[in-house]
Design a protein that fits this description.
Elements: H1 8-12, H2 14-30, H3 44-58, H4 70-74, H5 81-97, H6 102-113, H7 116-119
Helix pairs in contact: 2-3, 2-5, 5-6
Length: 122
């Protein structure tokens, strides 16, 4: 029985888990020809730091998120639903690869899915 007082952030393993997941995730993303062009001129280390902060915050970490809103950050990118789905698939695969149980993976994917309307813009 899960402790409903624990945030999703705590249940996935905290910042160590977020850091590991984002590091593995970006390796998958930059290897994917469907979406890697979005990252051609991006400092992946800097982008990784931003994503770690966002994921932690979105999963309930006790911290503030000071980055751009999702719609603003992605407005110039012509992202289609298939691009979003590819990125989401890489995240789901990463979380599974790192040993998260399927319930936790599903919860994280629900958080990610809630950003789709702000990210898909083409």
């Amino acid at each position: 029985m899960k402790d409903t007082n624990e945030s999703l952030f705590e249940r996935i393993g905290g910042m160590d888990a977020v850091n590991a997941a984002v590091d593995v995730f970006y390796k998958k993303v930059i290897s994917d020809p469907m979406i890697n062009h979005f990252f051609e001129n991006v400092d992946i280390e800097k982008q990784s730091t931003k994503l770690k902060s966002f994921v932690a915050y979105a999963c309930g970490a006790p911290m503030k998120y000071s980055g751009k809103q999702m719609a603003e950050a992605h407005a110039h990118m012509s992202i289609k639903e298939e691009h979003f789905n590819s990125v989401a698939g890489h995240l789901s695969d990463t979380l599974t690869q790192l040993g998260l149980d399927s319930e936790l993976v599903q919860e994280v994917m629900e958080v990610v899915g809630s950003t789709q309307n702000d990210i898909v813009n083409s």
